Amino acid sequence: MKFEKIVEFGPAYDKRHPDPAKDQGIGCVTIRFVLKGSKGAVQFLMGSGWFLPETVEEYKAKGGIFAKLTDCYPDGWDLGYHSPKPMCEEQPIVTNSCPYLDGKQCYYDGSGLNAEPIMERLLREGSDAVWEELAKYYHETFGESLKKRSIAVVKRSLGKSEE
């Protein structure tokens, strides 16, 4: 099967505002790996721990718990899929125009817990390990029956191999 590999970096930000209704806080650079195939796409999303320099300096100066911001570490946030059709009963449409499905409607689901083992492999083995995990997840998600897919996802979250 032919896959398209996409890597996107989202910028760090400081969108704090005195009005709590407008306050969006701060955020680090995000890195998204997307593996796109003929049946849908799967993604691994991570936080880099890289914040804007002025934000880090401000938090260092505040000290205490704020100084912890400077000790940030990369973290796996999400392993999920983008599907043009529902993958389970009553699954809602997330968007009517998904960039990973060539503008088609998107049914999405993901898991932060299932992202952790991929983050571990990235740190130890590099990006090839991420693509290997995403290919395996793609086949688990789009290549088997719903029952088999659900069992595979549960086993993955329990740290059990599918082999």
Structure description:
- This protein is an alpha+beta fold.
- It is 29% helix and 25% strand.
- It has four helices and seven strands, in the order E-E-E-E-E-H-E-E-H-H-H.
- It has helices at 53-62, 116-125, 127-142, 146-157; strands at residues 4-10, 13-15, 25-27, 30-36, 41-47, 75-83, 107-111.
- The longest helix is centred in the last third of the chain and has 16 residues, at 127-142.
- It is globular, with a radius of gyration of 18 Å.
- The two termini are 20 Å apart.
- Mean pLDDT is 87; it is low at 145-149.
Question: Which terms summarize this structure?
Answer:
two-stranded antiparallel sheet; 5-stranded antiparallel β-sheet; 29% helix; 4 helices; 25% strand; alpha+beta; 7 strands; 163 residues
By DSSP (H or I, 4+ residues per run), the number of helices equals: 4
Gyration radius over CA: 18 Å
Order of secondary-structure elements: EEEEEHEEHHH
Distance between the termini: 20 Å
Percent of residues in β-strands: 25-35%
Number of strands: 7
Helix fraction, binned, reads 25-40%
Global geometry: globular
- Going across the major beta sheet, what is the strand order? 1-4-5-6-7
Average pLDDT over all residues? 87
Which spans of ≥5 residues are poorly predicted at pLDDT below 50? 145-149
Number of domains: 1
Largest sheet: 5 strands, antiparallel
Structural class: alpha+beta
